[in-house]
Amino acid sequence: MPCPSAGMRVLVPLGRKSLTGIVLGNHTGSVKEGIQLRDILCVLDETPVVTRDQLFLWHWIADYYLCTLGEVLAAALPAGIIDDNYTARTATYLSLHPSVDIEHTRLLLNRAPKQLHVLETYLRLSATSPLVEKRTLIEESGESTAVVRALVERKILDESEQNVSRIAPYTGIIEPAHPLSPAQQEAADEIRHVWQSREVCLLHGVTSSGKTEVYIRLIQEQLEQGRNVLYLVPEIALTTQLTDRLRLVFGNSLMVYHSRFSDAERVEIYHAARSAKKPYLVIGARSAIFLPLQNLGLVIVDEEHESSYKQAEPAPRYHARSAAIILAHAVGAKVLLGSATPSVDSYYNAAIGKYGLVSLSERYAGLQLPKITLIDLKRQYHRKEMYGHFSDPLVDRIREELSHHKQIILFQNRRGYAPLLQCVACGKSPRCVNCDVPLTYHKLTSRLVCHYCGHSIPIPQRCPSCGGEMRVHGFGTERLEDEVEKLFPEAKVLRMDLDTTRNKTAYQDIINAFSRHEVDILIGTQMVSKGLHFDDVSLVAVLNADQLINQPDFRSYERAYQMLEQVAGRAGRKGQQGEVIIQTFDPANPVLEYVLHHNYQSLFDSQLAERKMFNYPPFHRLIVLILRHRDLQRLEIASSTLQALLQQVFGNRVSGVLIPSVARVQNQYIREIRLKIEAGANIARAKSLLMEQIRYTLTLPDCKGTTILPDVDPL
Questions:
Q1: Over 90: is that where the pLDDT of 498 sits?
Q2: CATH code of the domain made up of 371-417+475-610
Q3: Of 48, 52, 47, 71, nearest in space to 61 by CA
């Protein structure tokens, strides 16, 4: 058996099973005592299915994010490649038998008009390709399978099975890219200039400034030079409108990759990226970073501030933005980070000169930034000027915009009908049996649902504890939809949240309906805030800004500003200034002041000063250790033991044992320990010492069974 190269798949024995593995390299040194070598059963590939660049990235992710290579492999490769269970899709094709004389055959078929009609249809369809799919021929001719079979039996047509792609090719029109405005052209020129001295450039462009058109121009240049491009977006939902725009320019040079595809589809895209002969553009969510992207020239990370780029569960808990920068550096590619509301970390790197910075400060075609109005809910409730969760001024503005046939977006970043069902007598709320959280009321399904584990129960008629009356508190998108339909019965309303977009096409269907103006009011969670462009949206309303701002997290102000500014950017398109109405109980909050004046710089300055004072990123690196156990007592022992060990090594850089806001999920109790490492310290050494203490803790009898999960650079 020839020695397999790095990146090849091999079949190896493991106990009584045979498993597929990836060759990482060839070991030439001595074997450690006690390790038994086993023979490889067979080599599955003639050429590597994983490139050296991919292997480099895997190793970096495993080292940096303190996880195993196996965990990285499981995230990086489609299951069909690991398990070798991919089956190509086949279709039956027809071709003309080589001995057929067309004119003679036509005469022969005069007495068989149906067969003659099928033959004529075949000849028409085969003008572009001699192979015609059997199904297409039947559909186009309108004849039966039996008629086609008769032509095959008479050796007029030949039948063969061919492998076909599951990814439908683009057959639409290719259009030239839109010409750049002077501001866009200047931004593109500045980005090229930055790349002469730096690998990474941050494009800070206000909403609707036309960042996408700048991206398209830079992508075209890379493809013309024969280099491939990776275009990352934070969520699958964002690929919908963006893909339509990019298809018009790049046609079949565009590949799309994300987790909504079936495993077989992902396998085909993976192989297409590995073996493509022509330069291509890949657009995808964070998992696209793992594709075999050879000859990579440019990586674009759009909406780089989005937390969706950070994997939470399961490991590897990597950040796609950081991984993209590392990969680009390794292969000599350039990186473009784009956002209207950059992360504090990225903007700081630009401010200190680590990244280049280019600003695009005017909206495309002279569009004005939206007018923003704050409504004081305390005053509105005091004056009894509320309709459910809608203030009088907001109701009046919605009615006015509807009368002018304009569209409205209502934003509430909480799904379900209400977050809480509470007894008016004893104050208790039904809670999840598996998690330490109250169940969320979903009216449509008439159930209370846990948004952490999915556990659900029927809605109780009376309080299970005392028999008192149950009432809902708070509101989500489902309740908002109810109120809107009662307030504006003439309006067509749609809701876009996790509950209404579960199937593969639901999100696209909602977007299409809203784009065609079949919907007047769109209600949604954060899905409606990201990268969507609608020409007739004149009003955007945030129903409860305080819910965004008042979060127990050092990034809460940053995230609230980003969310509010992004959702505000959906208003005002097609030559009109939009309006944004924000309802709040605290109109004097500094975050709202920053949003009111679109003042990102002041937000950045205030956040930077605060984080420097309290030793948070970007001045310190943060590692959170998440400890879990089904037995609370054992978890407390393990937590306190590990915390004491870490304090001996790291001193006051280690926090005490923290109880998170949700302290039990899926019957596992949770504790946290935080480690802050100075930005200039030897982070690799710190991680090594950290893992030593974790491994030692897990060997102690009282700590066995505890799961300890490191989360590096958590969000």
A1: no
A2: 3.40.50.300
A3: 71
